[in-house]
Amino acid sequence: MGNIPHLLVVEDDRETRDLIARYLTSRGFRVTTVRNGGEMRQALDTGNFSLLLLDLMLPGEDGLAICCKLRAARATIPIIMLTALGEEADRVVGLESGADDYLPKLFSPRELDARINAVLRRSDSAAAPEPEDRLSFDGFILEPERRRLLNP
After folding, report:
1. Residue-wise over 77-114: b if at least 16 C-beta within 10 A, else e?
2. How far apart are CA 131 and CA 135, in angstroms?
3. Looking at residue 114, what DSSP letter applies?
């Protein structure tokens, strides 16, 4: 299961949370759901997640504050905000708070899937180290940047 992206869905509305989880599970993702920021922090402490789907309007601490705190703590987990607030100013504030993407409700499940995959692709390419130039000849491997010649 190592290559299957594990998503953490933070959504206070049970029906919405369950719909999102069922759909994403059917699309091949591993999904963990929580209702609020406190449960999210516990899940983040115990699990290794590929992406966070974060509702903006949560009871207690809202999604903007949560996102800002995660980024201030240097959390690199990709974040997609899901929210009923879809005006341009709302989207800009969400992205400026550190979200990688922002999707207003009511969204289509296919668009959610596409955006998740796009954010995961971007985060994977950002995390991947630059490939090193390696030359192979006569059973040797030359790594010029490291100034190494290997005989595997």
Report:
1. ebbbbbbebeeeebbebbeebbbbbbbbeeeeeeebbe
2. 12
3. H
Tens digit of each residue's pLDDT (9 = 90 or more) over 16-67: 999 999 999 999 999 999 999 999 999 999 888 999 999 999 999 999 899 9
H helices of 27-108, where?
37-46, 63-72, 88-96
Token code pair at residue 9: 């869905």
| Cα dihedral: 99, 102, 104, 108 (round 10) | -130
Domain boundaries, the chain: 6-150
Reply yes or no on domain 6-150 having CATH 3.40.50.2300.
yes
- Could you check whether the bond before residue 106 is cis, i.e. omega within 30 degrees of 0? yes
Give the C-alpha separation, 117 to 128, whole Å. 16
Quick check: helix, strand or coil at residue 139? coil
Q: What is the pTM of this model?
A: 0.77
1-10 per-position pLDDT tens digit: 458 899 999 9
- Decide if pLDDT at 125 tops 50: yes
